[in-house]
Fold:
Amino acid sequence: MLLEVEGVSKAFGGLMALTDVNLTVEAGETVGIMGANGAGKTTLFSLIAGNDRPTRGRIRLDGERIDGRRPDQISRRGVARTYQIVRPFAGMTVVENVAIGCLFGARREPSRRRALEQARVILDEVGLGARADHMASDLTVAGLKRLEVARALAASPRLLMLDEVMAGLTPNEVAEALVMLDGLKQRYGLTLLVVEHVMRALMQMCGRILVLHHGVTIASGTPGEVGANPAVIDAYLGKET
Structure:
C-alpha cells in the first residue's frame, strides 16, 4: 500500500472541514476524489502534501507516518501536487519554472544546466516543448494547466495529486489532457490521486472514487458503484419529484 489515510479529521476553529476520512491507494492506481465545492477535497490534498496538519488521524506513505512533516520532506519522499489556482513564476520562462522542481524536488539535479535539460524533456512530454523559452505569463489556460503538471513531475513523484487540472478546458482539451496523463502515468510509473469536477474525465480515469460531502465520506467504490449510489445521487443530483 503506497498511501494510507486513517481516521483523518481537520478542524478550522469550530468548522470541521474533514471528519474521520479513510483512504488507501495502492501503487499504480488512479483514485478519484469527488465532491462539491467545500466538500474537503483540497483540504485532504493539503494534509497529504504537508501544507497543513490533521487535527487527528494518521497519514502513511509506504507504511511510514508523514502527517506533521514539512512539505519539502514529503516531496522528497515522492509526493507532488498541483493546485487549483495556477500560479507560475510569471517573470520566468516556462523551462525555468520546471527546472526549479528539478533542482529542489526528489530529483535534486546537481547543476542548473542539468536541471534545464531535464525540464525540457518533461516539457516535451506534456506538449509544451515548443513553448519552453516563452514567458510563463504568455501561456493559455490549457498551457498553464500543462505547466502545472510539468512542475509537479519535475519533483520526481511516485504519488502525483492532481487538483482540477482540467478545470476551464474545452471538451477537446479535456480529451487531449486525458491522453497526456495516461501516457505520463505509464512512462513514469505514477500513482495518481485526482480531484476533478469534470465528471466524464474522473469516471474515465479512475478505478476507484471516494465521495466527500461536507467533509464526510458518503461513498467509495468503482465509478459504476459510485454513480449508482443513492447517497451520491441524493447529494449531487437531487431526487426526482
In short: DSSP finds nine helices and ten strands in the chain.
